[in-house]
């Protein structure tokens, strides 16, 4: 069982969506992740939102002209995503077992994004497998972008993955670190408790 399932019971889709809707109403920018990704690949690029939740990132990228697919294990989150954007493809799948061919999609994404603490909320011990499966969904030269907390102040669960571990998983999957930031606004990484990492697939 994933840390996310233990934390939420897999029934928090509406609550999660309501929280971000309230943030948006208050004037907070809730599209930082989509804006970050849009700066990396041109409109029309294929984007996989891995651990898409309620679809906030994929829906915004689709509005900006990207060809988006969302995958998640939490059915309650996907219900919200489907209700908000029924025209987009949403698939329920465990990231540790993700196989594009099995769900009938091509493994040639220009960018895979894992936002919202996806990596630290996986089932313990599956992190390397998930990175390998996400890397396998990229076209040659494609990008894996992941943002997650590294300490208790930035996570709803005890820290489960370090940056050196994540980089090692990426390297084993054929990915090279391109850049790392402290926020989705591309602030320089300063060794703090949150990091957004960009890795590139080999040719």
UniProtKB/TrEMBL annotation:
Which GO MF terms does the UniProt record name? methyltransferase activity
User: Which terms does the UniProt entry file under GO BP?
Assistant: methylation
Which keywords has UniProt assigned to this entry? Methyltransferase, S-adenosyl-L-methionine, Transferase
Ranges where the Methyltransferase domain occurs: 47-142
Q: Which SUPFAM superfamilies does its entry note?
A: S-adenosyl-L-methionine-dependent methyltransferases
Q: Which CDD domains match?
A: AdoMet_MTases
Xref: Pfam families: Methyltransf_25 (PF13649)
Q: What is this protein called?
A: Class I SAM-dependent methyltransferase
């Amino acid at each position: 069982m994933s840390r996310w399932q233990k934390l939420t019971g897999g029934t928090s889709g509406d609550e999660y969506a309501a929280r971000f809707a309230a943030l948006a109403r208050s004037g907070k920018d809730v599209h930082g992740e989509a804006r970050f990704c849009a700066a990396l690949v041109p409109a029309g690029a294929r984007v996989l939102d891995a651990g898409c939740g309620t679809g906030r990132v994929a829906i915004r990228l689709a509005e900006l002209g990207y060809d988006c697919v969302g995958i998640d294990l939490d059915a309650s989150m996907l219900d919200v995503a489907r209700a908000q954007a029924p025209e987009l493809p949403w698939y329920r799948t465990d990231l540790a077992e993700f196989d594009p061919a099995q769900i009938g999609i091509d493994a040639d994404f220009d960018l895979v994004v894992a936002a919202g603490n996806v990596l630290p909320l996986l089932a313990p011990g599956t992190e390397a497998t998930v990175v390998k499966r996400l890397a396998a969904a990229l076209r040659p030269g494609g990008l894996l972008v992941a943002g997650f907390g590294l300490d208790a102040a930035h996570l709803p669960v005890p820290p489960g993955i370090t940056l050196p571990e994540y980089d090692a998983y990426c390297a084993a999957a054929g990915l090279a670190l391109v850049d790392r930031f402290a926020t989705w606004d591309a602030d320089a990484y300063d060794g703090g408790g949150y990091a957004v990492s960009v890795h590139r697939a080999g040719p």
